[in-house]
Design goal:
By secondary structure, the protein is of the alpha+beta class. Helices cover about 45% and strands about 20% of the residues. It contains seven helices and eight strands, in the order αβαββαβααββαββα. Strands 2-3-1-4 form a four-stranded antiparallel sheet, with helices on one face. It has a four-stranded antiparallel sheet with strand order 5-6-8-7. Strand 5 and strand 6 form a beta hairpin.
Length: about 250
């Protein structure tokens, strides 16, 4: 059968297939379990940080494929995930809170492929099979904020009712204490605040000339606060994951 196309067209097809195969090669090399270290709260990562990480790993005799400081962060590669996870805890303890130590996957692309701009295809969370998050809500911080808001609410309510008080301050992690001038003001304050805040329990005391009213959130209210804090964090996390998922495609 006679050749129906000129030779240059066949050569072009062969060249295109060869180039595509070459730039697809990085996907065959897979990824290394790795740890990425960056600065937290304005802290920087430098050679002293690299020395600290290297020393901590050497002391625990944890082997690694490589460790390098590039573009303001440190990347440590390992041969298996067990070593990666063990190293993460050791490095976190060695560096403290000034650094962010995160598990990562680093492409195992050879240098000669990287030199021509070849890189593996980035897979989104859906193609990787999803991701697992362990989330912990800082309930102490949430309660501290709520108690502060409650203090302001009490001040506003007592001023509105023209009930004079000595001070209003936190009472533990889940309550507010109001100090009043006499027993009459104590009774008035309790009546007003009980009516406005049915989700709190109120306890009064007038011993040794000290007139105090302590308000604490009921357990049902505390549970609502915990649930709201968790739901709020889940929403924030979902929004950020969705943004990252779109950016990866």
């Amino acid at each position: 059968m006679l050749n129906r196309y000129p030779l240059w067209k066949y050569l072009m097809v062969i060249f295109a297939i060869a180039a595509a195969a070459l730039y697809a090669l990085p996907n065959l090399y897979g990824e290394d379990p790795a740890i990425q270290i960056t600065g937290a709260r304005g802290a920087s990562v430098d050679m002293s940080t690299l020395d600290t990480v290297t020393k901590a790993l050497d002391e625990e005799q944890l082997s690694r494929k490589s460790i390098a400081l590039e573009n303001g962060s440190i990347l440590v590669r390992f041969t298996d995930t067990d070593t990666q996870i063990s190293a993460r805890d050791i490095i976190s303890e060695a560096l403290g809170k000034d650094s962010i130590v995160a598990l990562n996957l680093a492409p195992a692309t050879p240098d000669w492929l990287e030199s021509i701009g070849a890189a593996p295809m980035k897979l989104g969370l859906d193609l990787r099979g999803g991701v697992h998050f362990l989330m912990e809500v800082d309930m102490d911080a949430a309660m501290e904020k709520l108690v502060g808001q409650q203090e302001e609410g009490f001040r506003s309510d007592l001023r509105e009712e023209r009930i004079r008080y000595r001070s209003i301050r936190p009472a533990g992690k889940d309550g507010v204490e109001v100090l009043l001038r006499n027993a009459e003001q104590l009774a008035e304050a309790k009546t007003v605040l009980e009516a406005k805040y049915p989700d709190m329990d109120f306890f009064d005391s007038d011993s040794n000339g000290r007139f105090a009213l302590v308000a604490r959130f009921k357990e049902t209210r505390l549970q609502e606060i915990r649930n709201y804090a968790v739901e709020q964090n889940i929403t924030i996390l979902r929004n950020r994951v969705n943004e990252l998922g779109v950016a990866e495609h």
